[in-house]
Amino acid sequence: xxxxLPPLTALxxxxxxxxxxxxxxAAGELNVTHGAVSRxxxxxxxxxxxxxxxxxxxxxxxxxxxxxxxxxxxxxxxxIAAATIAATPDRTAGILNVSTSDGFAGRWxxxxxxxxxxxxxxxxxxxxxxxxxxxxxxDGIDIAIRYGKGxxxxxxxxxxxxxxxxxxxxxxxLQGEHPLRQPGDLRHHKLIHDAFRIDWATWLQHAGVxxxxxxxxxxxxxxTFAVEAAVHGEGVLLGRSAxxxxxxxxxxxxxxxxxxxxxxxxxxxxxxDGALRQKKIKAFRDWLCxxxxxxxxxxxxxx
Length: 303
Known about the structure:
Blueprint (H helix, E strand, L loop, with lengths): L10 H10 L2 H8 L3 H15 L4 E3 L4 E3 L1 H24 L7 E5 L2 H8 L3 H7 L4 E5 L14 E6 L7 E6 L2 E5 L22 E3 L6 H7 L11 E2 L3 H9 L4 E5 H10 L10 E2 L3 E6 L7 H17 L8
Parallel strand pairs: 3-4, 3-5, 8-9, 8-10
Antiparallel strand pairs: 1-2, 5-12, 6-12, 7-10, 7-11
Helix pairs in contact: 1-2, 1-3, 1-4, 2-3, 5-9
């Protein structure tokens, strides 16, 4: 019995419009006109005899049937894409596009990449550190390391590691006119904040310090610059354990106090469903997990 199928060439337009909730953004992603997307979706609706979108003057939203259908279509298209990649030669098989933050790349990943290259000489890693969540389709990203609370839609997200936050500073600040000996001494020093806006107020509250303004000090858009400022004695940073571990080990930074708090954000390795069928992606994911397990205190897998 022949399959009952919709117009197959129209499905990418429908999936993109459902993902963006915008015909214009779908058209931009697919490099076609707004009218072409609208006609493709209308073609599916006419063929199936259902309404996929409620169309407003300036917006569209999925109907309940459309939302359910979009989820299934997205899964099917991802499976077809993965099968196509597995079945055809890839001219860029030796290039791996990795997305992560500049801080994680500079302070943790890059110093270890030589070990990956040594074991995978045929794979060239290209890092994207734009600071925004990359789109795996439009940005050509193969795999990402994300720092957040998880729940990333439309992709596989594996828990990688937890992280702690605690004050760090140059050893110079343990001496001088106002040496750092107890949390209250922070009133004499500049606080350093990074782009993730880790909450000094929470740490100070846990430390029992009520007379230090948690909002004062210097703020950097880049976590890398924030760490560098701490290394050069510009103030005290509420540092993330992964980003300051090398500087602590080298003695460029010290922990003036013992109190550490568990971060609400966690690290995840993220990739499209079925992506591990590609040798280069699986190789990097396996290497990354092994590096974290061997070199990251407190990196325990869920379950």
